[in-house]
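Lay summary

Proteins are chains of building blocks that fold into shapes. Our project writes down both the chain and a compact code for its shape. Here are two examples, one after the other.
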Amino acid sequence: MKQRVYIETTIPSFYYEVRKEPEMVARRNWTRAWWDRCKNNYEVVSSPPVLDELSRGNYPNKSKILKLMDDISLVPVEKPVLDIVRVYIQNGVMPNNPVGDALHLALASFHKCDYLLTWNCKHLANANKATHVKRLNAVLNLYTPLMVTPLELIPGD
């Protein structure tokens, strides 16, 4: 059985990143390497809120980014997920934005994803938050996904 990876908004966004700063180019390259060479090794899922986020605004390569998500299965946003979001926010695990990081973490946890793949290293792929998330998820009897960047899921040579 393949491990399950939840894709949040930053992953498809970075696939077509256009900024020229070295760190942005590196993230784009690592995202493409994972997506093109490793994605098929996993059961990849995302959610309607990710598609909603990607659909907002006017930015370069928007149609290509949305097309990239065409073959990705979507996990549903169920009422228990919204309850989990509230608990995350009330306990200071995630910022007070019910349709942002807390929602992605709640979806990945509720749907028992092995990984939450992200470039959000402030609130999600952040070792300083991992223990707090793990403790709170244990109290909630939830699975805790590893919150990682694409670089961490690219096998070494």
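And here is the second example, written the same way.
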Amino acid sequence: MTSKVLIAGQEGMVGSSIHRLLKKKNFNIINCKRKDLDFTNQSSVEKWFKKHKPNIVINAAGKVGGILDNKSFQSDYIYINSMIGLNIINSSIKFNVKKLINLGSACIYPKKTNQPIKENALLSSPLEETNEGYALAKILSLKYSQHLKKKYKKEFISLMPANLYGEGDNFDLKSSHVLPALVKKFTMAKIKNSPFVEVWGSGKVKREFLNVEDLSSAIYFLIMKRTDHDFINIGGGEHYSIKNIANLIKKITKYNGKIIFNRKYPDGVKRRQLDSKIIKSMGWKPKIKLEIGLQKYCQYYLNEVFPKETR
């Protein structure tokens, strides 16, 4: 019998990428769009699971956003992401899902910890304040999944990816992450011949980035392979300062103006780089180098997203 797959959040950047890959691999993906099911509603989620009976569940649903949006709407990030995660995981155990892959984030780790960050750093010290709400919700889902896995001997696993980017990303400057914000700012500045581009923060903080297609390949890898690990880091392997990223995007977009760093905006943690030795020891590694990925990403924004924004 062909496994039936639920991709929660299949219209988002991560979910749509997974959907494209698994479709190529001939998986039976159950159609479940945002309008069809409110994952924050426990009763609705249980009814859906009872009716469709998925064998594999991938939780890529949730409220996501950049540093300012996270800081401004902490309570929303806690409530929405906690409800989504707990409802999906709870229904997965209740309706005997064979394999669950629950997606978290590198921001679950403490503000101050050794770098690169190993999985055992979780809950070892306080979180970074600006995204505490999102991190707490993701930790709650991770821990619920972990305890159910231990109790019922289930194939439930949580993945903690580095900062993601790729096709389907959110380019709204009010709520986007750093990469889409920078790509949009530099592209617009090039088109309008603006004298400068403002980058939020000092530019000194360092981040690791992962192309969403690499994350999807890791998810497929773990669907096909059994592991005893409860949660695993998925990193891109390249670690850059925001200043270096800004200059790289400036080069790709061929923008000739100045870069101004606005220190009135928060930086977040000074450095975040994941230790991905566990997944690599299992046989997976990222394939898309950041500079190559960013070139395609800039072209994607210019050719596909920008025309829709200017209609």
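What can we say about the second shape? The first helix runs from residue 13 to 24.
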